[in-house]
Design goal:
The protein is mainly alpha-helical. The chain has five helices and two strands; from the N terminus they run H-H-H-H-H-E-E. It has a domain of about 60 residues. The chain has a two-stranded antiparallel ribbon with strand order 1-2.
Amino acid sequence: MPVGDGSFYLYLHGPIRRAAAAGVGDRIRVELQFNAAYRHGPTHSMPKWFRDALRGAPGAMKNWQRLIPSRKKEILRYFAELKSPTARARNITKALFVLSGNEGRFMARDWRNGS
């Protein structure tokens, strides 16, 4: 995450911090390696149940198309992990609600105007 002065913050969740013996605010050294095989965009296909729901909600479809690729990828990854029909129904309702331009929370984010 850019700090604004040319430096960056790297957010690490608990298990990674514990493995690195690093606390919040600690400076750490990180090695990065370029992955030439990486292809941008969603790695999970859009589930039929989500595609059909978007087709039935033109406003939600318009906002879906306007989302940045990383947000689409995040949502499709989340949907790919849903196991039960109940979880799918609950999440499609929330997704369509916020993508239709309503204010609400979905996937631990505040949504306004479809994004």
